[in-house]
Amino acid sequence: MNRISVPLKQLDPDLDVPRYSHPGDAGADLLTAEEFTLEPGERRLVPTGVALALPQGWVGLVHPRSGLAVRHGITVVNAPGTVDAGYRGEIKVCLLNTDRHEAVHFSRGDRIAQLLLQKVEQADFTVVDELETSDRGAGGFGSTGR
Fold it and tell me: Which residues bind substrate (predicted)?
């Protein structure tokens, strides 16, 4: 697995920096820098205590943790959240409790999301009169399945 060096500013020195739970994991765990309770249907912007300097040509994608989703209905509202290479502020995660009845409590240092780093390309968009045809054509949401 390829690795890149990413400068990280630890805004909260008492928290662990993001890390991979297992060799080969795609996402590094992001931790909450504060204790809070997320009520049913509530969303909250949660600080992680870290800021990054991603290299140009890379993006950080903030994904929900599958265990939190399955056990408690916790998701990332704008999944995946995007951390652009030029952003230098604290990474914050917009969490949502989709459970209709149960609140979920988080302690400082709990894992709340995963950060995936990916290479990206930028496009040069060219205006044309017509697009070449394809098998799918203009079929949209749900058009390829039942």
Answer: 65-67, 78, 82-84
